[in-house]
C-alpha cells in the first residue's frame, strides 16, 4: 500500500494478550502500521511501551464489563492463552482460553467491532476428547456465532520465540524440536510467533467477510 493517506483506510485496533509471545510481536507491528490510528492494549499490568497511538487499558479481566466504552474498536486481536499447568486447574484454564476471549468478543461486538481475530491452537475441536483441544474449539464456535462480519481463526503449532514468562514443558518441546523438527510433517512443524503475528495483521486488512480458519502449515509463509 502506498503512502498516499487518501488511499489508506484508517481503523482502530484492540489487542488482548499484548504481553504474550504472539501479542507482544503483534503490538510492535501494529504500532508501525499507518492503517491504525489507535491501538488499545488490555493488560493486567502496565506495559513499558510508550507510543502516541497506544492506549494501555490496565484491568483485571474479571472487571472487563466496566470498560465497554474503551473497547470500541474496528478490529479485535485476541492473543490470550495459557496452559493447564500454568493456570493450575482446568477451570482456571477455561477462564483464560474460553471465558475471557468470548466475553471480550461479546462486549466489543456490542460496541461496534466488525472483525475478530483469534489465536487458537492446532487440533482445536469442540468435539475433542482432549480437554485442551475441546476448550479451544468451543471458543472458536462461540466466537464465530457472535455475529462479527469477519472472524479469522489462527491455529499455530508449537510456538517458537522468547516468552517473558517461561513454560517448562514448552521449553522441553523446543529442545526436542531442535533435534527432530525436520522429521515433522508440515502441519506439525513449530512456528515462529512472529509469523503468526504477521499473518494476523495481513488478514485483518483483507476485504473478505465470513469465517476463515488458518492452519499452522499455511501460516509458515509469513
Report the CATH C-level class: Alpha Beta
Structural class category: alpha/beta
What is the CATH topology descriptor? Rossmann fold
Query: What is the H/E string?
Result: EHEEEHHEHEEHEHEH
The portion of residues forming beta strands comes to: 15-25%
- Tell me the number of helical segments per DSSP (H or I, 4 or more residues long): 7
Superfamily at the CATH H level?
NAD(P)-binding Rossmann-like Domain
Distance between the terminal alpha carbons, to the nearest Å? Answer: 17 Å
* Major sheet details: 7 strands, parallel
- The shape is globular
pLDDT < 50 runs, ≥5 residues: 1-6, 172-177
Note the main attributes of this structure.
222 residues, alpha/beta, single chain, two-stranded parallel sheet, 7 helices, globular, Rossmann fold, disordered N terminus
Descriptive account of the structure:
With 222 residues, this protein is of the alpha/beta class. The protein has one domain: Rossmann fold (3-Layer(aba) Sandwich). It has 7 helices and 9 strands, in the order βαβββααβαββαβαβα. The chain has helices at 21-31, 84-87, 90-110, 131-144, 168-180, 193-204, 216-219; strands at residues 11-16, 36-43, 54-58, 75-78, 115-119, 150-155, 159-160, 191-192, 210-215. The chain has a 7-stranded parallel beta sheet, with helices on both faces. Helix 4 (131-144) links the parallel strand 5 and strand 6 (150-155). Helix 1 packs across helix 6 (193-204) and helix 3 packs parallel to helix 4. The longest helix is centred in the middle third of the chain and has 21 residues, at 90-110. It is globular and about 45 Å long. Mean pLDDT is 89; it is low at 1-6 and 172-177.
Amino acid at each position: 500500500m502506498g503512502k498516499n493517506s487518501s488511499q489508506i483506510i484508517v481503523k482502530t485496533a484492540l489487542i488482548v494478550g499484548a504481553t504474550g509471545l504472539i501479542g507482544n510481536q503483534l503490538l510492535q507491528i501494529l504500532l508501525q502500521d499507518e492503517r491504525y490510528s489507535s491501538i488499545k492494549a488490555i493488560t493486567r499490568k502496565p506495559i513499558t511501551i510508550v507510543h502516541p497511538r497506544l492506549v494501555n487499558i490496565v484491568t483485571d479481566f474479571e472487571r472487563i464489563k466496566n470498560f465497554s466504552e474503551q473497547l470500541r474498536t474496528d478490529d479485535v486481536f485476541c492473543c490470550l492463552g495459557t496452559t493447564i499447568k500454568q493456570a493450575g486447574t482446568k477451570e482456571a484454564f477455561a477462564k483464560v482460553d474460553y471465558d475471557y476471549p468470548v466475553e471480550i468478543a461479546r462486549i466489543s461486538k456490542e460496541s461496534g467491532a466488525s472483525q475478530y481475530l483469534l489465536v487458537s491452537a492446532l487440533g482445536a475441536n469442540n468435539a475433542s476428547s482432549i480437554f485442551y483441544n475441546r476448550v479451544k474449539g468451543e471458543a472458536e464456535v462461540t466466537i464465530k456465532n457472535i455475529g462479527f462480519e469477519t472472524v479469522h481463526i489462527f491455529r499455530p503449532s508449537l510456538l517458537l520465540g522468547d516468552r517473558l514468562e517461561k513454560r517448562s514443558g514448552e521449553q522441553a518441546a523446543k529442545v526436542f524440536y531442535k533435534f527432530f523438527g525436520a522429521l515433522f510433517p508440515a502441519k506439525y512443524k513449530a512456528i515462529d510467533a512472529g509469523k503468526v503475528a504477521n499473518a494476523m495483521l495481513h488478514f485483518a486488512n483483507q476485504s473478505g467477510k465470513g469465517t476463515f480458519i488458518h492452519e499452522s502449515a499455511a501460516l509458515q509463509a509469513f
